[in-house]
Protein 1
Amino acid sequence: MPGSIDRKRIGSDTISSIGLGTYGIKNYSKAFEAYVYGLTNGIDHVDTAEMYDMGRAEEFVGEVIKHVGRDGVFITTKMLPNRLDDREKIVRTAQESLRRLGVSYVDLYLIHWPNERLSITQQVQNFEVLIDKGLTRYIGVSNFSLNQLKEAVYGAKKTPIVALQVHYSVLNRVEVEEQLLPFCMSQKITLQAYTPIERGSVKDNPCIKAVSERTGKTPIQVSLNYLISHENVVAIPKAERIEHVKELIGAMGWRIPEAQMNYLKKCLQ
Ligand SMILES: NC(=O)c1ccc[n+]([C@@H]2O[C@H](COP(=O)([O-])OP(=O)(O)OC[C@H]3O[C@@H](n4cnc5c(N)ncnc54)[C@H](OP(=O)(O)O)[C@@H]3O)[C@@H](O)[C@H]2O)c1
């Protein structure tokens, strides 16, 4: 299990710094073994969406949860923006997701990306119906700009926005770190970094490889450790191969030394 440096606050819970994404799974039976391994060896949250494989990814998470147990797994799912204009539609959509997941509630429900036809305030207030109905414990947003995030945070009436999920990796960091991260810190919002290893391609970057050689950690682990060394950041890489999941777990429980961190930032400029 990761030590306290890799337990991160989300709402009033704590979760491991690394979670598992579920977009683009190819071999579900192989993936089952990998996710069960992850969720019983130090990873305790999983990210999915109604959109992924047209609901199949949520069903897959349901199968894994049935095996490892609901308690102790923090489940995030996401709703498509075109549901957000009508509260009944939101509730019906969530009930379908929960049925696929085989659970009575999720821990975190995200707006997958903003609905451009509706004010942010209106869509967030509609989305809050999920809290009223007990279908989720927390709500958050994904793919929101800083201004959209601010409107969501200030527009939420009944419950705070606890999470922002965006593309954040060591190779895609400047905008996130300059704009989103400071606001998230100030509002106690957890930032969930998606595509955090750039689909595996971070391992070929010479700057990351150099830090890997100096720290004795793999380039994937260095790349993830860079992200989770920020206090309010968790990363949600996807891995359906068990050897990959083992490598992801090894990204937790240590920190890149300051000198290597400085070298990495300079080298990547
Ligand atoms: N909110 C949004 O709009 C949004 C958008 C994109 C993604 N997401 C979420 O974020 C998750 C992660 O993002 P992503 O799937 O786009 O990209 P990613 O996590 O950066 O990359 C996934 C790829 O990396 C490979 N991989 C995993 N561990 C590895 C390792 N140790 N060594 C080498 N390769 C490794 C995986 O291979 P194997 O699977 O073969 O093991 C898979 O092909 C998604 O699954 C999804 O849940 C959210």
Note: The chain has one domain: 4-203+219-255.
Protein 2
Amino acid sequence: MITFNNVTKTFEDGTVAVDNVSFTVKTGNLVTLIGPSGCGKTTTMKMINKLIPLSSGEITINGNNISNENAVELRRNIGYVIQRIGLLPHMTIEENVSLVPKLKGWKKEDYEKKVDDLLDMVGLDPHIFKKRYPLELSGGQQQRIGVIRALAGDPPIILMDEPFSALDPISREQLQDELKLIQKNIHKTIVFVTHDMDEALKIADELIVMKAGSIEQIASPRTLLENPVNDFVRSFIGEDRVRQTLINKEELQASAIMQPFFDEDSNNLFPTLFYQSSLQKVAHTMLLKEAETIIMVDENGLPKGKIEKNQLLQELAGLKRMVE
Ligand SMILES: Nc1ncnc2c1ncn2[C@@H]1O[C@H](COP(=O)(O)OP(=O)(O)O)[C@@H](O)[C@H]1O
Ligand SMILES: [Mg+2]
């Protein structure tokens, strides 16, 4: 568990990069620090492995104040991945990945096995890749090596600073998927910096939204989407996404807005839908079948209510107003 208690960082020139920030990253969680450029994400992250000293407050890891820890020792137990990974160009992939295990005094057979396992894990055949040099790999492959190098010494904590942002969109999504899969098995405590909301929502257990050195909101992806605390967070998430979330929300099932069903309605051949369908589905069916009315039915196909097109449009417009 990583805990920030009222942490502030003021640089020598007076810039307050991080302003009285408090949060906790639970063991085994992947938390993203997200916010616009210059809001203090990197500074916050670098204070965890003591690349930047803090000005006031305290940071503890599993209850131990990091100010009492030796920086080199600390970093050996905290993996670190950055955008341009800085693989050592004159070392093979195998040598790059086994760097920390060797420093930790692992036996040769142990770190060799670890390198093979890690390469396998990210879909790079060890026989082909371990003897290669970084420049003989594509950008996406190099970044995979950056990730597994950070994992190699089995650190409980991993810091990742915009690790995928220099990649093309396809490689980037692949690496996000891989990271999610890997994390399912290894349950590391990961702090991941990004300015990309799609990325954060996809990979994070929890998001810490920052603005100008302060924290605006800490929430799970779902809570953030459903309850952004203020206009800044809302606009950073994106109006479209907030609106879509509201429309998709379980509470906004057809059953929540349907009208009573009268016998005379059965004289017409209206399309039917299960009464717990989403409003989105109702709207979609109306469009598809060019219907003015949909009859909502229960699991036995018996009518429970109906929804008229005008009413649905009003409902959706109401939602739109809520987020404007
Ligand atoms: N060494 C430094 N000296 C002075 N100001 C700095 C230094 N490093 C970063 N800053 C400033 O601190 C603020 C936060 O920077 P940073 O943590 O890198 O933001 P982010 O990672 O969110 O883009 C910015 O205003 C930046 O210009
Ligand atoms: Mg940064």
Note: The chain has 15 helices and 13 strands.
